[in-house]
Design brief:
InterPro entries: NTF2-like_dom_sf (IPR032710). By secondary structure, this protein is α+β, with helices and mostly antiparallel strands. It has 4 helices and 7 strands, in the order αβαβαβββββα. It starts with a helix and ends with a helix.
Length: 170
């Protein structure tokens, strides 16, 4: 009986030592990479070092992927619309998951705030970004947000600009 009890304890001990990698976590090297990427975005440091050469970025689309350099150029071009912009420091959520297929993804839910250069109007938008990692590098980036408020405000600025130009011609 004593041998059976010791054998059972040994099996339990060995079974408890069999640790599997975390399938979900809120702390990982990949999350740290994404947080650094967000800090770079906020400081307008357009660094592509987190991306694999073959990485594809999709922002509010499933088509027309951008390369890392094209994604940074996209951000530079849209920056012209804002006197300030960036992700807010509070209420950011990050998680890393390993899918059933063994893919590593970092998801983040952030609040973005921008001030339009043309009017001083402040706009806040919730944003969801997700990054697939392979060997420590981003191979796929997906970003989703509702741009309607920004589009309407920029259209209004453009309409006022065109109206002013027409008045000057008259």
């Amino acid at each position: 009986m004593r041998k059976l009890l010791l054998f059972g304890l040994a099996i339990i001990t060995l079974a408890s030592c069999n640790t599997k990698p975390a399938r979900y976590t809120q702390n990982s090297p990949e999350i740290d990479v994404v947080k650094k990427h967000m800090a770079n975005y906020n400081s307008k440091n357009y660094d592509t070092s987190i991306y694999a050469d073959s990485s594809k970025t999709f922002l509010n689309t499933k088509k027309n992927a951008m390369t890392p350099s094209e994604a940074m150029e996209y951000h530079k071009q849209t920056d012209a619309n804002y006197s300030s912009r960036g992700f807010k420091a509070e209420d950011q959520e990050y998680e890393m998951v390993v899918t059933d297929d063994g893919e590593t993804w970092v998801n983040c839910w952030l609040d973005w705030k921008g001030t339009l250069a043309g009017t001083g109007q402040e706009i806040e938008i919730p944003v969801h970004l997700t990054y697939r990692f392979v060997e420590g590098k981003v191979v796929r980036e997906l970003g989703y947000w509702n741009p309607t408020e920004i589009v309407l405000a920029l259209q209004k600025i453009e309409a006022q600009k065109n109206s002013s130009e027409e008045e000057e011609k008259l």
